[in-house]
Amino acid sequence: MATYALQIAGLVLGGVGMVGTVAVTVMPQWRVSAFIGSNIVVFENLWEGLWMNCMRHANIRMQCKIYDSLLALSPDLQASRGLMCAASALSFLAFMTAVLGMKCTRCTGDDEKVKGYILLTAGVVFIVTGLVVLVPVSWVANSIIRDFYNPIVDIAQKRELGEALYVGWTTALVLIAGGALFCCVSCCNEKSSSYRYSIPSHRTTQKSYHMEKKSPSVYSKSQYV
């Protein structure tokens, strides 16, 4: 019962991580305007994402434009686009693998050892996905902070950390936590199955021992008769 609860918790965390990964990929708030120095036009807010940039005017109207070319992006955003697409695919694959390894799933049979291996695979893929999400988010954040404190960069070109980066860090932690739970469930299933199989072998050994002990007495009785 405890392992089933861990499976449900891991699946919920994995599902939340999958949705978060897709949300971070499509969100335009990776880089937002920095209102510092002479750049205090607060009624215009600029967002820069992996696929588009958006301009919001006085919290009323927002205009978004998709990037004309991939080469127009900075190197960190170019790499982040590919990594986040890969992370989205990996999170979906890990989630579907975890569903197949759940205790309530019948299409993969009732062998707990096989399901333990399936959950272990799902857990490893979830952890890898969390690391893949963590790399581009941290890379872009490092670039923003470096440019923000660089005196050579013009004030109008400086940006701040957007909401997508915070969501990305949270998503990475959720994915790693879900993967760790599935790995723990797999280890628990393996230990319980090995313990379960060790008990019949012990009884069989005792039974065979009593049979061997009993057979000479019968043989000797037949000799006396």
Describe the structure.
The chain is α+β, with helices and mostly antiparallel strands and 225 residues long. The chain has a domain at 1-26 and 74-193: Butyryl-CoA Dehydrogenase, subunit A, domain 3, CATH 1.20.140.150. Helices cover 67% and strands 10% of the residues. Strands 4-3-2-1-5 form a five-stranded antiparallel sheet. It is elongated and about 65 Å long. The termini are far apart.
Q: Could you state the oligomeric state of the chains shown?
A: single chain
Largest sheet: 5 strands, antiparallel
CA-based shape: elongated
Beta-strand percentage range: 5-15%
Low-confidence sequence ranges? 195-199, 201-205, 217-225
Radius of gyration over alpha carbons?
Answer: 29 Å
Tally the beta strands.
5
Distance between termini?
A: 58 Å
CATH class of the domain at 1-26 and 74-193: Mainly Alpha
- For this structure, the CATH topology of the domain at 1-26 and 74-193 is Butyryl-CoA Dehydrogenase, subunit A, domain 3
Proportion of residues in helical segments: 55-70%
The ordered string of helix (H) and strand (E) elements is HEEEEHHEH
| Strand arrangement across the biggest beta sheet | 4-3-2-1-5
